[in-house]
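Board notes, transcribed. Complex of a protein with zinc ion.
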Amino acid sequence: MTDFTTATASCVERLQDLIRIPSTNPPEDLGGAAGNDPTGGETAAARYCADVLTGAGIGAEVLEAAPGRGCCFARLRATVANPLPPLILLSHLDVVPVEAASWSRDPFGGELVDGIVWGRGAVDMKDMVAMELTVMELLNASGMERQRDLIFAGVADEEAGGTFGASHWVTARPDLFGSAAGVAAAALNEVGGYSMVVGDERYYTIQVAEKGIIWTRLLAEGVAGHGSMPHDANPTIRLAEAVARIAALEPSGTPPPVVKDFFAGLGLADAFAARADSVAAARTLIDARVSDPALRRSLAAMLVDTITPTVIRSGSKMNVIPGTGMGEVDVRTLPGTDQEALLERIRTAAGPDVRVEALHRLPPVEADAAAEIVGLMTDALVQADPQATPLPMMITPGTDAKALATIGIPTYGFAPLRLDADMPFLSLFHGHDERVPVSALAFGLPVLYEVVSRFVGVDGADR
Ligand SMILES: [Zn+2]
């Protein structure tokens, strides 16, 4: 019988410790907050994970794709002959920078106040790192026979695209993500798993898909000159007009079946159906039923390809017309969208004076919502919270799932957390005052352990 009270206490302490290692990405943003490791917080975080695992009797190694960009890999080997392909507990150790002045508490303090752990990474995603470390420890200590390897992969650089993390290691060392039985059967990763309340009902998200990405740059050419003598080739105007036209493009894309089923499960089938005629009509129906503004935006973004201008940069002096201007547009595509065709629409909208370049393109990912492990997640959630309904879903951001997909590993977002209805969970990702209730971890840890032990263990969980 596993003692989850003690395990949850260890998990909370590990989360606090990890938050106190400011593994900010990009590392230049560390400033004076680099903690005890001047070579980079990711390596310090990776060493911390390796120390925890080694202390639990599990061999672990820290690998760096570049100095300071540390990842921690560890493995509990199968105990049977002819094992099945492994399961990966995937996470990223880096966090996004903070604007400390906007926080109520020290973002790297890891404070535990009134049952809530505060700090950068509390939900994205050192909470899951701490839960995964603890599950590794518990499974090892249980003495359970294992029908597959269980791999811990805490990687660097997710927040900047994974060049020094998952993307690097799946290419350089695919063996880290598989065994003699082949590549891993599945990976469990961040984002999905949290509860949400729509109407009076509580739902749990099981993330089986994520949108594709086209990070797009706009380059406006023009003619430099004196601000007192305007002309028709001002790149600031060209850029601003192009951005306005691009932002006003008619929404495109067809939501995949998982989104249709998710909306139906939430009682929002009418909003999904309305999308065929008008995205605005769908939004109205969503807004009428869902109170959390971030959840409203998330649901609306599941229905379309989104085109979001984020950066406009042109000129540097009041009385100088610049020669060029630059803009950036964050484009997120549904599964099934032809990214090249969408880029062509953006080019047409930008017009002849603004060049459009795709800086970084990644396809959407979709895993099998009917896979055995999704059934285990559903069972574990229903067992732990019989009143709630688990639902497979697609997220709108991207994760390291994209890197693992390139070597054929399906990744599921499953960081189970039971949250109060008033918790603005989705706003905490990359937000100020990032925090997580201990009660959410106390709920999630046994659920995660149940799924892992039933998938990896020969006899299932030791209930
Ligand atoms: Zn994350």
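Residues 92, 124-125, 158, 190 surround zinc ion (CB under 6 Å). The first helix runs from residue 4 to 19.
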